[in-house]
Write a structure and sequence with these properties.
The structure is a single chain. This protein has helices at residues 2-6, 9-20, 32-44, 97-100; strands at residues 51-53, 61-63, 67-72, 76-83, 89-95, 107-110, 124-128, 132-139. The relative contact order is 0.19. The chain is 24% helix and 31% strand. It contains 4 helices and 8 strands, in the order H-H-H-E-E-E-E-E-H-E-E-E. The chain has 140 residues and is an alpha+beta fold. A hairpin with a 3-residue loop joins strand 3 and strand 4.
């Protein structure tokens, strides 16, 4: 119960591993608030109807470290970016806007904070704590 209810870090570590690899999670042994955040974002974008773009395959979304997974929907790309290492990490995410169908008029948002991200699609800089993740959307 301590790790499930009181400390969110173990739950965020587990969700980072699962979310970046398109693995479903349940709330049985995880902090309910943390999984609700993830489920809320995934439901907001209807990712069950989206195309999963795996980080391990060549494609229109690339990143060095940290790892990355993406979903492509009708008018959005959802980036799940995870650092699965035991040290803080930084990296650059690059999106092929043409292949993904992202128009010139788009908006990048950090879905956890709701704040806009003002970076170019071909060089989004990211920094993440150890064993953690974030979710950014590109919408149009």
């Amino acid at each position: 119960p301590k790790y499930r209810d009181d400390e969110t870090k173990p739950s965020r570590s587990l969700l980072a591993c699962c979310a970046v690899n398109d693995v479903p999670c349940s709330a049985s042994w995880i902090n309910y608030g943390e999984i609700e955040k993830l489920w809320g974002i995934l439901d907001k974008f209807w990712v069950s109807d989206a195309e999963f773009i795996p980080h391990w395959a060549p494609g229109p979304v690339t990143a060095g470290k940290p790892l990355l997974a993406s979903y492509k929907g009708k008018n959005y790309v959802l980036l799940i970016i995870a650092n699965l290492t035991k040290e803080p990490a930084s990296g650059t995410v690059k999106l092929d806007a043409k292949t993904l169908g992202i128009p010139g008029q788009h908006k990048i948002t950090n879905e956890f904070t709701g704040k806009p991200v003002n970076q170019p699609l071909d060089g989004i800089k990211i920094e993440l704590p150890a064993r953690d993740y974030t979710i950014w959307s590109i919408t149009w």
